[in-house]
Amino acid sequence: xxxxxxxxSRRAFLGATGTVTAVxxxxxxxxxxxxxxxxxxxxxxxxxxxxxRYQAGITLPQPAQRNLLAVVADLVDAVPVRPLLxxxxxxxxxxxxxxxxxxxxxxxxxxxxxxxVGPRLVRTVDPALPGAKDLPRFSREKIASRARGGDxxxxxxAGDALVVPAVAAALLExxxxxxxxxxxxxxxxxxxxxxxxxRAAPRNxxxxxxxxxxxxxxxxxxxxxxxxxxxxxAGGTLAxxxxxxxxxxxxxxxxxxxxEAVFGRRRATGEPLSGGTIxxxxxxxxxxxxxxxxxxxxxxxxxxxxTAVGVGLMLRRSYxxxxxxxxxxxxxxxxxxxTFTSTLTSMDNSDALLEYTTTTASATFLVxxxxxxxxxxxxRLFR
Length: 383
Description:
This protein has 10 helices and 11 strands.
């Protein structure tokens, strides 16, 4: 962490009596006996417990941290899964507590690490379990074989951008040669926009508010987010990661009205084109006096609408990226993989937004249930 500047602050200078002697200054330097002015220091970031019924980094913290790194890896053949996961869970506890020397003195703050296992590993336990199915292929994909699928997800989020790579290095060092990295992607969340009391959502690179709709209440999360059974996966969820390139130059050539027709929402406010507030669900039946839908038939807000698709809600913690090309790391959590696959199938048919996207990486994972000292990470699934 940076040390406080030893020079006098503007506030201390203006509050002086006007004489050098009165404020203990000599040749423009502050007296060593005067306490430093820390009025502009940021407040400490509240920590997020890594243990409990659910893993952190999904619904907590709220709003989500600004910085993310997702690492997707494969397990080397014949590596026992249970000890590896238990060691990662132990490392997560020391890293989030700030007691791991590999943090190099950095404060972890609101650090969260979320661990998931891929379909191949789930199938070794039981092919009928949630998370055992690979994602199908969709249109507008240009995915190299190395960027499709994977055995292990390590999602690291933190408010401090320096903490993220330090934690990644510590966890990968702990895993050692038992895993081989497939791909990684870092991202950052845009400025938060208030949706309603206690809830905000960021803007994406297209300038629109992203992630407004989702299972935000406890009842919605129990219904659509968390797995309730069978026992080895209860308290977990299913994650989908998609790295998506965005055609920013072509989208920018559209008028604001045309851009809003693509999304089905106002760019400035996030409000549905059918009216209401940003928190209002779009009225898909609302029409103009001449019979046109206020939310166009091919608008993203219609094609991805849970009721129109006939699925549950998905929770999104998406991040904007600038490499290898400008775009979006789409991350969704749901307790039924059909929530994602049916939604994307509906979008594939006629979603205007897809014309400006190309998916370059894709994977799905069973996010393991929460853990603690008595129940190591992954111990309920891999016995």
